[in-house]
Target: GDSL esterase/lipase At4g28780
Amino acid sequence: MWFSTNSHHTIMTNMRVILITLHLVLVTIGTVVPMRTESARAFFVFGDSLVDNGNNNYLPTTARANSPPYGIDYPTRRPTGRFSNGFNLPDLISQQIGSEPILPYLSPQLNGQKLLVGANFASAGIGILNDTGIQFVGILRMFEQFSLFKQYQQRLSREVGVVEAKRIVNGALVLMTLGGNDFVNNYFLTPLSARSQQFTVPQFCTYIVSEYHKILMRLFELGARRVLVTGTGPLGCVPSQLATRSTNGECVNELQQAAQIFNSLLVQMTKDLNTQLGSDVFIAVNAYQMNMNFITNPQDFGFVTSKMACCGQGRFNGVGLCTTLSNLCPNRDVYAFWDPFHPTQRALEFIVRDMFNGSSYYMNPMNLSTIIAMDANI
Ligand SMILES: *[C@@H]1O[C@H](CO)[C@@H](O)[C@H](O)[C@H]1NC(C)=O
Ligand SMILES: *[C@@H]1O[C@H](CO)[C@@H](O)[C@H](O)[C@H]1NC(C)=O
Ligand SMILES: *[C@@H]1O[C@H](CO)[C@@H](O)[C@H](O)[C@H]1NC(C)=O
Model:
């Protein structure tokens, strides 16, 4: 079921109708979601499957979430391309900042005034390195996401003029979620991967953070001025890794250590960049600790397990992919992981709470509530 179907366009058309209807309902009742105002800032998203909201549906790749039970808790109850049972991280951030959800850049519906809200360029399977996720074939690597962002800016300029387009891009909130695949779908993919022959883990982390530095500089050149940079989560604790590498269900040490080395280099790199730019452009998000909180104490968060995925098969439901044939838990709100790699909407809600209201240990140098208050005064 991980390929394109003829019903895809029908689904998208139905979804569009439902979403438009939903939007009207929400605007009418008004109190449920903050209404979009003239001043609602644009939102741009780059990165991998944690934030892809459907771009891969339009690409020749197997890395897709466009078949059931993906989307089972989404308002339409249909798969959308999000790697979640319901909303994903960008959706939940949009809701909190009072913007309508942004569309995948490749969606034919992203036209006209919709361009002003922003766009999502993320593509499941990609990494910092071009050789990450090669097994997924036709996905949008970072340099491709950026060339589409340039194309977007030209289209936006035609819509609102060059000056206003620049103001929208400079004033936008940007989310960049990248790096996990450079480990699980590259360095650690096979025991003798090319990158693991070339580098030790610390050397590899130094190398990919130096490449990430170039990516963030390019993003700055393209006009981004407020960028959330999520570190990688606890890679050794995801059901897929528990299933394949853990003997006793404990998080896999080698991957946990790699994630920690990478994350601490990333925090330092964003600090250095901010110093160099003389402005807090980049905000390091401690996704590792945000996830570890509910992985370590699932009961405190209302989860019955943080080891077993809701959808999957084999040990910890962590073997293979989540498909129509997989085991599926009846209540997604009591699971931390939706599929072998991705958190449930419920778990993402806890992450978003920390992004808005967390201390500087979680959000460095500042949380999203502070950013929004500050930027409102510009
Ligand atoms: C990825 O490929 C693009 C286009 O060929 C190139 O500009 C970029 O430097 C490459 N990145 C890395 C990390 O090799
Ligand atoms: C952050 O805290 C404020 C004040 O307590 C609260 O109203 C808001 O809902 C919180 N935001 C998130 C995303 O949890
Ligand atoms: C969010 O950041 C602001 C400024 O750093 C801080 O005052 C506030 O306490 C933070 N929120 C929480 C819940 O720590």
Observations:
- Residues 238 and 298 are 14 Å apart (CA to CA).
- The longest strand covers residues 43-47.
- The pocket of 2-acetamido-2-deoxy-beta-D-glucopyranose (ligand 3) is lined by residues 357, 359, 366-367, 369-370 (CB under 6 Å).
